[in-house]
Design goal:
Elements (H helix, E strand, L loop, with lengths): L1 E6 L5 H10 L12 E4 L4 E6 L1 H10 L4 E5 H7 L4 E5 L5 E8 L13 E4 L2 H10 L5 E4 L6 H4 L5 E6 L3 H5 L2 E11 L1 E5 L10 H16 E9 L3 H7 L7 E4 L5 E9 L3 H10 L3 E7 L6
Parallel strand pairs: 1-3, 1-4, 7-8, 7-9
Antiparallel strand pairs: 2-3, 4-11, 5-11, 6-9, 6-10, 12-14, 12-15, 13-14
Helix pairs in contact: 3-4
Bound molecules: adenosine-5'-triphosphate (ATP), 1-O-pyrophosphono-5-O-phosphono-alpha-D-ribofuranose and magnesium ion.
């Protein structure tokens, strides 16, 4: 059985569970269940703290897992990223009182609070900067106001938490993070069931991030319309009863749908219809 680590709490848990359910796997009935055997799919799920998942997978105790790229790199484990899962996007950044710091070089000898001290140490070492790290569990943005640190290094999504504490990001982003599928470096990626898991998750990502767009177009304008959206592989072009016209179907990124509909209408497309993709194998 493929042993899969899944976040049991925090920002990643809900979407990770949703993706696995959409991919046809068994979920847990309540938040107290720590192990779920899915005999039909020959996989076993282990619900663990997101921060611990890279350790379990890197040690080989579990084959694959879902965690954050920032957590994976912070852990220093031997687990490797297999692919991004397209959710929980964030950047990992330094922040401090407005105007106090300009770049990582200004951090020499400074106290930096973070929940990701491994990541910060690696980054500072790469820049030849020595600083004092203060390891905190969360709500790191309060550390400067409370006087336990001069700067912080933390997860930034909208920046609202930093702003509320009067802090500003500075320097280059340390990392761009998202939820990732990880595996054990030593052959974990070839385990039975792994290819199926990957293919199913890819299908969920496509169904989540893409839509189908259908429209009718005069054949004389077909090339212009395909130029607007050429599809995943290539556009499907079907004849209509009127030989001067064709019906076209393309996949487009969901977040570009309205922009593409406008552009298609501009080149003469009619009856433009957008449909959700329920499931996919690409
Ligand atoms: N606001 C956010 N937006 C996007 N991703 C986030 C956000 N906060 C945390 N993450 C991501 O979630 C992962 C951390 O999850 P974890 O459950 O350990 O912490 P958490 O979500 O902050 O939970 P908690 O605060 O309850 O401990 C990291 O990959 C981090 O980048
Ligand atoms: O840029 P923003 O949109 O404000 O989001 C970033 C914040 O979200 C997370 O905090 P969380 O609420 O999980 O609390 P924590 O600090 O205790 O982890 C993260 O640790 C940042 O503090
Ligand atoms: Mg948090």
């Amino acid at each position: 059985m493929l042993k899969i680590a899944v976040p049991n709490k925090g920002s990643l848990a809900e979407t990770a569970a949703w993706m696995l359910a959409e991919a046809g796997y068994r979920g847990r009935r309540d938040g107290k269940e720590l192990i779920v055997v899915d005999a039909r799919n020959e996989v076993e799920f282990f619900y663990l703290r997101p921060r611990d998942i890279a350790t379990y997978v890197g040690s080989g105790a579990l084959d694959v897992g879902i965690t954050g790229r920032d957590l994976l790199l912070d852990s220093g484990s031997d687990a490797v990223e297999v692919q991004g899962l397209g959710f929980a996007h964030s950047t990992f950044r330094f922040a401090g009182p407005a105007g106090r710091f300009g770049s990582a070089a200004d951090l020499a000898g400074v106290r930096i609070a973070s929940s990701y001290t491994g990541l910060v140490e690696q980054h500072l070492a790469g820049h030849g900067v020595r600083a004092e790290l203060v390891r905190l569990d969360g709500a790191v943005e309060s550390a400067v106001r409370l006087g336990v640190a001069d700067a912080v290094a933390d997860v930034v999504e909208t920046g609202a938490t930093l702003r509320a504490q009067g802090l500003e990001v500075f320097g280059e982003p340390i990392l761009s993070s998202e939820a990732v599928l990880i595996s054990n470096g030593a052959g974990g990626a070839e385990k039975p069931g792994m290819a199926t898991l990957k293919r199913r998750l890819d299908g969920v990502i496509v169904a989540r991030d893409y839509v189908l767009v259908d429209y009718d177009i005069e054949r004389s304008r077909l090339d212009a319309a395909i130029g607007v959206a050429s599809g995943f592989e290539s556009a499907t072009v079907s004849p209509l009863h009127d030989p001067e016209w064709a019906a076209v179907r393309v996949m487009v990124r969901r977040d570009e749908t309205n922009h593409i509909m406008d552009a298609l209408a501009d080149v003469g497309a009619r009856a433009i219809i957008v449909t959700r993709i329920h499931a996919a194998r690409i």
